[in-house]
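Key idea: predict the complex, not the pieces.
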Amino acid sequence: MSDLKLDKDGYLVNLSDWNPEVAGQLAAEDHVELTDEHWEILNLLREYYQQFEHAPSQRPFVKYVANQLGKEKGNSLYLMKLFPGSPAKLAARIAGLPRPTNCF
Amino acid sequence: MSQSICIISTQAPYRGQFAREALDAALVSASYEIPTSLLLMGDGVYQILDGQSPGQLEKKKLSSLFQSLELYGIETVYVDGESLAERHLDPEQLLPLYTLLEGDAVASFLAQQDKVLSF
Amino acid sequence: MATLHTVNKAGQPLELCLRALNPGDSVLLLEEGVYALYEASDVLSDLLRHIAVYVLEADVLARGMTNRDDLDIDMVDYQGFVELTVANDKVVSWF
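Result:
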């Protein structure tokens, strides 16, 4: 386990510190065990960040997943099951992105 | 039905944080499912000039935020046609995500809004 | 839906405000907008034909300006500013 530099909200300070292992470590802290279903969403979220340069809040997160993977996965319930609590925030943390700025 | 908000953005991009803050305000408001619109006027129309590469200024591209608006439920950006014309901007130079408001349309559009915030 | 428009500078803020006015709206000149009393007096006298225009006393005095006697512009204090805000459905600031 490496010592990760996290900000006060628990998000990676240096986005370049991220790799799949780090993701596993961050997920474990939140009691999430990463499966293929998680990875599908995490990869999408990283694509979102590449394209739009910010981590999305819940609404665009759901819509983006729906656009890319269809409605069965692009809905709050499904995402909530994978990333309990606040999916947009938790998934961003595990994906190594900054805290969603438009999400309180 | 919650009250509608219009965000007016009148400053050129990279002039302080105005443009960025206007977009952030729009994204936050839309995240709360408030009917939100964004109106560019004056130098604000320069914000949707295509091909901005602010890397050397160490700033993020505004276009990335503009392009994400749709995912937040903001389907179009309103642009004051007169401001475009004054600046001799050709529609082809702009990100194709706006709707022109010509002449009196700006005033009547604003009259319909419950709240207006300017940046 | 009447709107109070505050204008803090002649130039772009005043120009954009003019485009956004509807009958029944009011305009309040404040901060550097008070210079419009002289700088943009033609525009203001045109505007006064159908829109009420006010100017904020504190900003006029601070800058050594005076209200124009030849234009029908009311000078308001902060209390008047608040009253204008209350009298309108919304406030739009132009800067």
